[in-house]
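User: Could you check the structure of this?
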Amino acid sequence: MTALYSLRLFLLVFHSNRQNHHQIVKLKPIMELPLLILAAGAIFSGYIGYAVFNIDNLAGFWQDDIFAFNYQALNQQIDHLPLKITKLPLLAAISGLSLALFIYYRNYQRKTAIIKQKFTIIDKLLSNRWYFDQIYYLVLVKPILKLGKFFAKRVDRQMIDLVGPKILTKLTIGSAKLPSKSQTGYVYHYALVVILGLLAVISWFFVSAFI
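Assistant: Sure, the predicted structure tokens are below.
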């Protein structure tokens, strides 16, 4: 599969009709420098890590992180595998390259149209990414959206707003109206309040002195 996609990308970029409609330009340094750094890391990081971590001693390096059988016995089994099994990766890569070359080298649009007509179900599966997005939406996204709407409408707006801002606002307004009724604006009312306050203070001192 990797061989097929890699050669497909190469053929569509450099050997297709699309190339005639687009001008190929050299990368700018701001884009070329990160790619060079990544390429250097991909080439040399293995050599550096091999020396730093002393990977020659595999048993000592992995210790108990990875369980494996006896390395010598395992290597002997690998060396005596049938030839058809050891050549399977090479055969798969050659098959992928051949298939990509057959489909995408020339007249790929006509060939892909024929393939889509003959393998409609497979084409739909691949074009829709095996319907993973649709399944993900139905199984996870849609229920979560419904749950979120329920909390937003029922819990947040009806319960929290009712218990919180609305009731607290009414209590605040009601408690503010009660003392506001005593503010009549008449001087004798204020004088009465002052006298009652003085009497309360004097009474407190007298009571505390005799106790």
